[in-house]
Input
Amino acid sequence: QVQLLESGGGSVQSGGSLRLSCEASGSTDSSFCMGWFRQMPGKEREGVAALASDGSTTYIPSVKGRFTVSKNNANNGMYLQMNNLQPEDTAMYYCAAGRAVIPCGMQVLTPQLRNHFGVWGQGTQVTVFS
Output
């Protein structure tokens, strides 16, 4: 199975940028769904951005226009470019991968469908201060 590893987190001032990387190793499904998730202390993990195998992307409204997810053609992983970061973006960020059983955006954004992601990274911390 595929193994995922996140990197690129850090501490930045409001308005700054970070580029997260999700490195993938091992085999992947032909029709896959990958997603970026984040979790604040005491809160449920939420989907942030989705990347389908056809290259299409989906974002939650709060990050649309600021975050961009793209695939890493070298290792089947993905990136998350985060611009104009805000304190509300502070969280542990995770990447996940799974078979695309339903539309990928729906798999990422619907908490009840989180079980479709069988592989998760360890997470990378993003802290944004004013």
Summary: The radius of gyration is 14 Å. The longest strand covers residues 91-99. DSSP finds one helix and eleven strands in the chain.
